[in-house]
Design a protein that fits this description.
Blueprint (H helix, E strand, L loop, with lengths): L2 H7 L14 H14 L4 H6 L3 H15 L7 H14 L3 H13 L4 H10 L7 H15 L10 H5 L4 H23 L7 H4 L14
Helix pairs in contact: 5-6, 5-7, 5-8, 5-10, 6-7, 8-10
């Protein structure tokens, strides 16, 4: 492999572990992803360099994003895209942009959210979510109890509020890890949810 080919193939600033170097739980996760998605997300490979930490992160991330919770799945992905775009995180903005489209949001709306949520055709509830996600991401020191009132006005209860804050916090963490270490999105994410993915393909996470 030439140096230029190595640069193209590189998905992290750090080396990637082999199956022999990671815990069995990580190997099972890689194989499950390959079966369900047809590929292993690059973040699964890159973060597995510290296998136990990766499994702990994934358990919480998976609970917040993929399990039954208090927010709707599309709302969770909306938060993911807004926070990731505000932070300029390439990996998360691209991968969760795909998930937002696959959740049923029109590609034109999802793309607008990724660039400037204020110009997207959002509902009142969606706009309240985005506004709070932006404030907590960009100006966390300004957040007060009063900032929860607009969310309560669009139907948020206590459990919804806590989950929203946790998801915003999770993506601010994950964005910084991904950006600091140069994680590169899988090519499959770019076409997903645009009517270009293979028939019968599973949602990308």
């Amino acid at each position: 492999m030439t140096p230029s080919q190595q640069d193209v193939a590189r998905i992290s600033f750090l080396p990637l572990p082999t199956e022999a170097q990671v815990p069995e739980g990580v190997v099972r996760l890689w194989r499950k992803a390959e079966t369900n998605l047809g590929f292993v997300p690059n973040v699964f490979k890159a973060q597995a360099l510290n296998g136990e930490q990766f499994q702990a992160w994934w358990a919480y991330f998976n609970l917040l994003l993929n399990k039954e919770g208090h927010l709707q799945p599309q709302e969770r992905e909306l938060v993911a895209v807004v926070v990731s775009s505000l932070n300029g995180c390439l990996y998360c903005a691209v991968s969760h942009g795909a998930a937002l489209r696959l959740s049923g949001m029109a590609p034109s709306k999802a793309d607008a959210v990724a660039v400037n949520w204020r110009q997207a055709p959002l509902t009142e509830r969606e706009a309240a979510i985005c506004r709070y996600a932006e404030q907590l991401t960009r100006f966390p020191q300004t957040v007060t109890e009063a900032d929860l009132a607009p969310l309560r006005a669009v139907g948020f209860g206590d459990h919804d509020l806590l989950e929203l804050v946790q998801i915003i916090g999770m993506f601010n963490l994950t964005n910084r890890v991904s950006s600091a270490l140069g994680f590169v999105p899988n090519a499959e994410y770019y076409a997903a949810g645009r009517g270009l993915e293979p028939e019968g393909s599973a949602p990308l996470k």
